[in-house]
Automatic annotation (TrEMBL):
The chain crosses the membrane at residues 52-72, 93-112, 124-143, 164-186, 227-245. This is Uncharacterized protein. One of its GO terms (biological process) is glycerophospholipid biosynthetic process. It is a multi-pass membrane protein. It comes from Monilinia fructigena. PANTHER family: LYSOPHOSPHOLIPID ACYLTRANSFERASE 6 (PTHR13906:SF4), PORCUPINE (PTHR13906).
Length: 252
């Protein structure tokens, strides 16, 4: 954890009645907006730099903000385990083996959290639940990539992974900071198309004038205004929830 980073959260927790970790979690959500704005401004031609930025921000959240060294190890175990299963296990049971491994690992950590029984403390199980959804889908996508295309539906063809990603791309997918702690989960193909900006290309037969507006040479459409509306709505519901808890006497 970064020195003195707890001080403002401890002070605010005493005023608002929420726990320090809960305020840190909300702060991480809010910080993701400006960080995402910076991410969008990394040149489209440098996806490796985008991966590095994503990994760096998530490392700041996990280690600098929450001091979750053990939690980071937990995410690494799930990620490396799922990747190795997808790479080395052949046959139709590969995605099921990956799913059992991921759910078993999550169950152990969920039981440990129940024994601690402190809902005000943020541990790694929230991020791990999101990761289970992502990595189990990853195993299925790899399995689909090994099947003849004639046996796949259109949906499966779009998300099939025919070649395993490198470790750097995979780490960026695993540690995508805007959805690290609370989701949503998404397929690796979506991440790859987003970071390479191929998802923003105009499909054949579509009038280019109908393309969403962009700034300068970036392919990613302008998104600042809808993002700010989402942030404002989220803050409103958080404050309403805290007011409700105070009204019921659940927090002082």
């Amino acid at each position: 954890m970064l020195p003195y980073i707890d001080a403002p959260f401890t002070y605010a927790a005493g005023i608002l009645g929420a726990s320090t970790d809960e305020l840190k979690l909300i702060t991480s959500f809010l910080l993701s907006y400006p960080f995402a704005g910076l991410l969008k401004r990394i040149p489209d031609s440098k996806p490796a730099l985008k991966n590095l930025f994503i990994i760096g921000v998530s490392s700041f959240y996990l280690l600098g903000l929450f001091d979750l060294w053990g939690g980071t190890r937990t995410l690494a175990i799930s990620s490396i385990g799922a990747y190795c299963i997808a790479k080395y296990v052949q046959g139709p049971f590969m995605p099921w083996i990956g799913f059992v491994f991921l759910m078993g690992h999550l169950s152990v950590n969920q039981l440990a959290r129940q024994f601690v029984n402190d809902p005000g403390v943020v541990d790694i199980t929230g991020a791990q639940m999101v990761l289970v959804m992502k990595l189990s889908a990853f195993c299925w996508n790899v399995a689909d990539g090994r099947q003849p295309e004639a046996e796949l539906s259109g949906f499966q063809k779009e998300r099939a992974i025919k070649k395993l990603p490198g470790w750097f791309d995979f780490a960026g997918y695993v540690l995508f900071f805007p959805s690290l702690f609370a989701g949503p989960a998404f397929d690796y193909v979506d991440y790859k198309q987003w970071i390479e900006t191929t998802m923003f290309e105009v499909p054949p037969g579509v009038d280019p004038s109908k393309k969403a507006p962009t700034r300068k040479l970036r392919k990613i459409p302008r998104s600042g205004t809808p993002a700010m509306w989402k942030a404002a709505a989220g803050l409103f519901w958080i404050l309403l929830f805290l007011s409700f808890l105070r009204g019921t006497g659940l927090i002082s």
